Amino acid sequence: MPQIEFGPFNAVRAFIISLGMAMLVMSGQPARAQAEITPFLGSYSGSAELENVDGTTQQRDMSVEISETKKGFRVQWTSTTYKPDGRTKDKSYEIDFVPSDRDGVFAAAMKKNVFGHEVQLDPMKGEPYVWGQIYGDTLTVYSLFVDAAGGYEIQQFDRTVVAGGLNLVFNRLRNGKKLSSVSTFLERE
User: Fold this and answer.
1) What is the Cα–Cα distance from 7 to 11, expressed in whole angstroms?
2) How many structural domains does the chain have?
3) Residue at 9 is within a domain
4) Three-class SS of residue 50?
């Protein structure tokens, strides 16, 4: 049986043949579609009643702005709660998202590390772990919190593009039990 020698010429030729075969195999596969943020871009606002697990409700005004960034997109939202005594309480959030290695899944870029790269927060330090997903006409933002005892809370914001704006569905769960929810229409401004 003849011996195969892998001298420099044969090694280069084997590499080129392997590369060509890989390109042929890959060319037969459909290209993966990247999820698009474009349909979600804009400013939206509306009102809703937040329903708590105990059956009580709270009136809220809500707004969200979704914009493009150099590396991905930004979601900014504000929720205004009206107290029975007439006081109001505003909560505002702003999170940048960058593409991950998975189509339609986006990592939150919430702080910079020592090298200046945007990274996730650490849920083991009481910080929220946040990510986003685009599936069809829905942009979902998840926030996971781990408490000091090891329990968890997860918040899920589903924003679905519809004629004239977004349908918002929000759910908040702690250790698998629903704490609050809201469903409303946010009008495009």
Assistant:
1) 6
2) 1
3) no
4) strand
Give the single-character DSSP code of 176.
Answer: T
Structure tokens at 155: 């918040």
Cβ(66)–Cβ(41) below 8 Å: yes
Question: Which distant-in-sequence residues (6+ apart) come within 8 Å of 107 by Cβ?
Answer: 97, 98, 99, 100, 120, 131
pLDDT in tens, 62-100: 999 999 999 999 999 999 998 888 899 999 999 999 999
The SS3 assignment for 81 reads strand
Q: Report which residue type is found at 110.
A: M
Contact 153, 145 (CB under 8 A): yes
pTM: 0.75
Pull the structure tokens for residue 57: 């409700």
- CATH number (domain holding residue 167): 2.40.128.20
